[in-house]
Amino acid sequence: MTKSWLVIRSQKSLFSIRLDRRVPWVMLTLAIAIAVVMILSIGYGEYPISPLDVVKTLLGIDTGTADHAFVIYVLRLPRAITALLVGTGLAVSGAILQGLTRNPLAAPEIIGVNAGASLVAVAMIVLLPSFPLVALPVAAFTGALVAALLIYLLAWDNGSAPIRLILVGVGVDALAGAFTSLMITFGNIYDVSQALVWLTGSVYGRNWEHIQALLPWLLVFLPLSFLLSRDLNTLALGDDIAKGLGSKVEWQRGWLLLTSVALAGATVATAGTIGFVGLMAPHLSRQLVGASHEGLLPVAALVGGLIVVLADLLGRSLFAPIELPCGVITAAVGAPYFLYLLYSNRNA
Amino acid sequence: MSVTISSTEPALTTRQLTLAYDRAIVIRDLDLVIPAGQITALVGPNGCGKSTLLRGLARLLKPLKGTVYLDSASIFRLSTKEVAKQLGILPQSPTAPEGLTVRELVAQGRYPHQSWLQQWSAEDDRFLEQALAITGMVELANRPLDTLSGGQRQRAWIAMTLAQNTPILLLDEPTTFLDLAHQIEILDLLYELNQTEGRTIVMVLHDLNQACRYADHLIAVKNGGVYAQGIPSNIMTEAMVQEVFGIESRIVHDPVTHTPMCIPISRKARLA
């Protein structure tokens, strides 16, 4: 009999896990694709470096050009890594939300979580210019959490029906967007220009300091999301089924929501709102490895990373020397994708 | 109004169970015994509270008052995972995420038997294959649920509750939306499970004749209380149908199964 699973069990049967058979291959392929795009991305620019020299420099082999190490390590590598990490966080955040709301159209940018994060982050930049960079994720996380709670409470009516969650989310999104605009209109011009660059959703000029601020959040919440993926599977079957299967529904939904919000908040704090990644990546990943979250979450993480790294490369190269923020690229692709999903889900 | 329970031990017992949605009381002060190892059918008109009662028995609804006992322990004192090892529930028309395959769905039935470290044991594999085999879903195991017919989908959900491997199974209208052939197929399957494995089955059924055919114990629910309960041949009377469903009927002898058969005469009595 053909089986679609890969089962890993330790000999003393202390440990076992089950994955879709496609997961390892898909992840390997994605990892290779990410590596290739990152190398191309690091090599591309006003000062081009050949892919071979990029690899050599990254491996610590002298390429004979002293500038390479500086350009790569100080300017371009942190930017590429930021793009990768941000994509990862957004994708997993979106995958969790889609599972929780049982709605393939849910994503942190659509239901206002990202807008909440942006609002608080912009407020910090504009109102408190001396606000330290490392604390920005905390501020954005707070904004995301408040937005998420607001949506949850406003949409609550004997349970949180997915469609109400989305509609209320769109409202919260608009509200947060309006306050952000207000902040920008009345802020100090220098601070506002800073905030604007940040708001467009870009990894421009991101350095190791940004990565330092983002990484701890991912190191905590990505593994947590993987640990909770079995619970997310049961919640995706609906509350009654999940309760019947012995899941502590409210408790687990709380943890998952917190994880999703933390990932969205931290990534928005780092790179602004790079739209539609949290929507597209989980959806594409389901096509690749199916709907079980044990495999879906890590695959979505890689797909999200690949999308943002690629969007950043395209943003810099399509209309060079004009540089488009990667958020513009993901929106240009993502918005039609969203409409397509909306259309194909119209009867659901 | 006679209470006839042939079984020696109860599977589930309720004491003064009061269930409500938003303070609108649906079930009031109900004392009920569900016999172990038997098929119990809950029948009654729409809105009488039979689905609510089933949800209450499965601890999906917190009672306003009273409790449900499972093996002499209150179901709300036990950990929800412990309960899930004893009692499986299939609510009415559940939905699965897009693209989920039958195998993945059925595997979820193993959730209460798993932990963070032990996510897929050899035992999980065995019960999964068994559940697929019993329900005849082996060939369809790798198909996404949304590509199946209503009957196949219902069988997949039943397979999920079977994989849970619980001595007690609660099902809310397992035959709704199915054509006659599939209705009989599902009911036969549940009957076999009861006969071969001795599982206690409690189900809400709309069709009185099917309830009489398959149930050992019939519970007629009216206005949030039990109107009558016992073996079908005892309680299935013209008076009961009149009182509970508000229609005139003739109860005749089913020539195939020798159980009572209800032939409704008209709805005039109810409209008048």
What does this structure look like?
The complex is a heterodimer of chains A (348) and B (272). Chain A has helices at 23-43, 51-58, 66-101, 113-127, 136-155, 162-186, 189-199, 208-227, 229-235, 239-244, 249-271, 277-289, 293-317, 326-344; strands at 5-9, 16-20. Chain A is built from 14 helices and two strands. The two termini of chain A are 33 Å apart. Chain A has a two-stranded antiparallel ribbon with strand order 1-2. By secondary structure, chain B is an alpha/beta fold. Helices cover 33% and strands 28% of the residues of chain B. Chain B is built from ten helices and twelve strands. At the A-B interface, strand 1, strand 2, helix 9 and helix 10 of A face helix 2, strand 6, helix 3 and helix 4 of B.
Protein topology:
The complex is a heterodimer of chains A (348) and B (272).
Chain A: E1 5-9, E2 16-20, H1 23-43, H2 51-58, H3 66-101, H4 113-127, H5 136-155, H6 162-186, H7 189-199, H8 208-227, H9 229-235, H10 239-244, H11 249-271, H12 277-289, H13 293-317, H14 326-344
Antiparallel strand pairs in A: 1-2
Chain B: E1 10-21, E2 24-35, E3 39-43, H1 50-57, E4 65-70, E5 73-74, H2 80-86, E6 87-90, H3 102-107, H4 122-134, H5 150-163, E7 168-172, H6 180-197, E8 200-204, H7 208-214, E9 217-222, E10 225-230, H8 232-235, H9 238-245, E11 248-253, E12 260-266, H10 268-271
Parallel strand pairs in B: 3-8, 3-9, 6-7, 7-8
Antiparallel strand pairs in B: 1-2, 1-4, 4-5, 9-10, 11-12
Helix pairs in contact in B: 4-5
